[in-house]
Amino acid sequence: MTKIATTLALITACWLAGPARSERLDPAAVYVIDGDTISLNGRSVRLVGFDTPETHEPECAYERALAERATHRLEELVRSGAVIELLVLPGLDKYDRRLGRLLVANRDVGEILTAEGFARPYDGGHREGWCG
């Protein structure tokens, strides 16, 4: 799915599910679980629109290494000193996590991580493996 189609699908899903809300975050309150999941006050938030390699039970050494780099890069972005906002989306994922988009200095971290090679666009469908 193209970036535009993914964005349109997300906007449509959000519109149908109800309004999203924006929260300005204190970086100290953000715990980075992995490249596409954070925790706020003990509650996990799945960042939508992109997918990063798995840190939990990776399928190969390459996936493990890239997952660690993606996690570290997200931590850098959160700790950069820039304004951080979370756009909280309605609903939960299949693991009962909140859904959201994380913005650092008004840029979506999914777009940043994808542009830097740590993530790929993801619309919630089938996920490709990272081990080739």
* General shape: globular
Which architecture does the CATH hierarchy give at level 2?
Beta Barrel
Report the strand count: 9
Q: What structural class results from the helix and strand content? A: alpha+beta
- Portion of residues in helices? 25-40%
What is the residue-mean pLDDT, rounded to a whole number?
88
Beta-strand percentage range:
25-35%
Uncertain segments: none
How many angstroms does the end-to-end distance come to? 20 Å
Radius of gyration: 14 Å
User: What is the CATH domain class?
Assistant: Mainly Beta
Q: Please work out how many helical segments DSSP would assign.
A: 3
Number of separate structural domains: 1
The CATH topology: OB fold (Dihydrolipoamide Acetyltransferase, E2P)
> What about the largest sheet?
7 strands, mixed
H/E series: HEEEEEHEEEHE
Write the layout of secondary structure elements.
Layout: H1 3-17, E1 21-25, E2 30-34, E3 37-40, E4 43-47, E5 49-51, H2 61-78, E6 84-92, E7 98-104, E8 107-108, H3 109-115, E9 120-122
Parallel strand pairs: 4-7
Antiparallel strand pairs: 1-6, 2-3, 3-4, 5-9, 6-7, 7-8
How does this model look, in words?
The structure is a single chain. The protein is α+β, with helices and mostly antiparallel strands. It has a single domain, classed as Beta Barrel (OB fold (Dihydrolipoamide Acetyltransferase, E2P)). It is 30% helix and 33% strand. It is built from 3 helices and 9 strands. Strands 1, 2, 3, 4, 6, 7 and 8 form a 7-stranded mixed beta sheet that branches. A two-stranded antiparallel sheet has the order 5-9. It is globular and about 40 Å long.
